[in-house]
Amino acid sequence: MRYIFTLILLIGYAINGFGQTITIREKESNEPIELVTVSNVKTNLYTTTNAKGQADISAFNNIEKIEIRTLGYKSITKSYAELESENFEVYLEISNFNLDEVVISGSRWRQNSDDVASKIISITAKDVALQNPQTAADLLSTSGKVFVQKSQQGGGSPIIRGFATSRLLYSIDGVRMNTAIFRSGNLQNVISLDPFAIENTEVLFGPGSVIYGSDAIGGVMSFQTLTPKFTFTDKPYITGKASARYSSANNEKTGHLDVNLGFKSWAFITSFTSWDYNHLRQGRHGPDDYIKDFYVQRQGDSDMVINQDDELLQIPSAYSQINLMQKIRFKPNEKWDLQYGFHYSETSPYGRYDRHNRLKNGLPRYAEWDYGPQIWMMNNLNINHTANNAVFDQMSIRLAHQWFEESRLSRNFNKTSRSHQVEEVSAYSVNLDFVKSTSNNNTFFYGVEYVVDDVNSKGKTKDIITGITEAAPSRYPVSTWQSLAVYVTDEYKVSEDFTLSAGARYNHILLDSDFDTSFYSFPFSKASISKGALTGSIGGVYRPTKTLVLSTNLGTAFRAPNVDDIGKVFDSEPGSVVVPNPDLKPEYAYNADLGIAKVFGDIVKLDVTAYYTSLKDALVRRDFKLNGRDSIIYEGELSQVQAIQNAAVAHVYGVQAGVELKLPRGFGFSTDVNFQKGEEELENGKTSPARHSSPFFGVSRLNYKKNKLRMELNVNYQGKRDFNDLPEGEKGKTEIYALDENGNPHAPSWYTLNYKAYYKLSNTFDISGGVENITDQRYRSYSSGISGAGRNFILSLTAHF
């Protein structure tokens, strides 16, 4: 911290006072509008309004085209002179539909979405306030365009366009969250993020490797956390909110507090959230196969199977979590803007519910199977500089360090030996990004990136009777994973109606691992990978009228082998064990998109995107031999040897479609649906449905807005997936699926009916809540190991100050 403050103070020369303040309000209610973007494309200047609808625009003096826009309102363009003549008071009209907005996930810089060929959606703080998602995974699912799988209540693994886990990229304040141990199996890392502390969420669909590097195959999820706000007067700007929430399905008790303290050059924001969830109750009406009416409890020297009083409770699924964020912002003048952010998240241990469903000889296979505390910490320094020289107009330096810790604890039923594996990753990253406009019509985005992950993994066993602890195999080898990259994107306005963009990135991956051969006789003790990857994209956006947008994009993406791919040892399913394979190379994706968005008479909006992705040299799990043997003893059981290999080709194609309808008297209707089909090559040359290709899913909403009241009645739904349509690797997982008339697992279709409401009681208080799953359905999202909540009553109260 001392060095960071020293750096800030050294750069802080010539602190200038701030000039002119603009105030932006809603025309209908006269309420201030927060997070309005005020920008000029030519100079790359931008600023955003605070909670009072205010922003400093002294840097825009004498500029002729100042764009003022935010989601849900009609954009306007004015000159500085016009704003001055209006006393810098601006009123925005509510827009029925938007075909453009300000986005950052396309290039890490603020852009108008009508210049970005890829499909991008935004989830705003207003959406979060109405929907009340419990986790960041639930926040993503509220969009109706991101599918979320869960193996336990403390989890959530997004699926985008048939890809998931290590084939998707997470970005927090512009920093890559993916680490060298992100696995191809389901991930829970997204729950480390705090929905209360997220200012805006964007999802970029399709390849994002040109900007974000390895893993950005199916899409990019970009989370922007709360930004400290300055004052524009001589008085400090103090604002914040305190929230309390209760949900009945899991007896949720959540509290949140954030406080912003702003001066003219310095601003601080502190955020804290605490969650506590009891075991999750599922619905009454649905497949009986989802009911597990027992749990295991240790009594004396034996494990006992306990029959539950309430068979709808999913035990064990309870967990708790805390999140802390501290940000400091320093803006000595209009050219420099520095932000330091500290993030910390920690969960309690929590049971992996699907593993507790496994049986062996009619008894539970496991007495214990828990994830240990999941810890994430990030220190992030972001330095932005605006200039007008031959090299750049804007420069951004991001220096980040992240710490990840996760663990697994398991013990077989009526066995005394408890296995405990702990993984730690220290991740360092440096990003240097530039923007340069060479003319009114041409803008270059370019940069360099360096990432290094140090992986440390330990294993031990403990006899719960004697207390004797012994060393045991670790999950991963001690490893260092490095990524070095350069990229460039050119955005060219061919005309006022047509924007063309093209980009390329070269990435070089280095991986060094040291294997412990004292437990397994690997035919190697070290592994090294040095591979390069070249990716590119080209796309265009055509706007023949203000009510029609046509876009297309061709792009490639890659995923480099990481430590999880080449080095882990784990049981993928009963009777199988995955062993290391150091002979891997990157997998490549080739993608094509075609989108159309059309507004009809300011009453109906239609948005359709079709896509096709082909994945070559796909990293998949296949049968393998270790020292010439196809089976080894693992945890006391003879198990088939498998390994990750470049052994398949996969194809995913589909359509995302949405329609919005403006109805009279404050009502509106919208539907978002997703159709996708995926297939992957099997070892015998045949094909199977792709593992992460979700069934048809979507959401339909009936909205009402009037003055201080917002209400929504929505239906979430998922299509069925029959046994013959399940991926081959899913057909043996009888513990997570319902059984059909032939006793085969399948994923039934389901729906939930939900009511949400938000009311602003006063300038200080607002109340929100609703009823989820009104008809109390017992349902389970595709490939999930735990059922969704039954009928769930939510009540949230927020105080603003």
TrEMBL record:
Domain of life: Bacteria
Pfam families on file: Plug, TonB_dep_Rec_b-barrel
Keywords: Cell outer membrane, Membrane, Receptor, Signal, TonB box, Transmembrane, Transmembrane beta strand, Transport
PROSITE patterns from the UniProt entry: TONB_DEPENDENT_REC_2, TONB_DEPENDENT_REC_3
Membrane-protein topology: Multi-pass membrane protein
Ranges of residues in domain TonB-dependent receptor plug: 115-220
Family assignment from sequence similarity: Belongs to the TonB-dependent receptor family.
Name by which UniProt lists this protein: TonB-dependent receptor
Organism listed in the record: Aequorivita xiaoshiensis
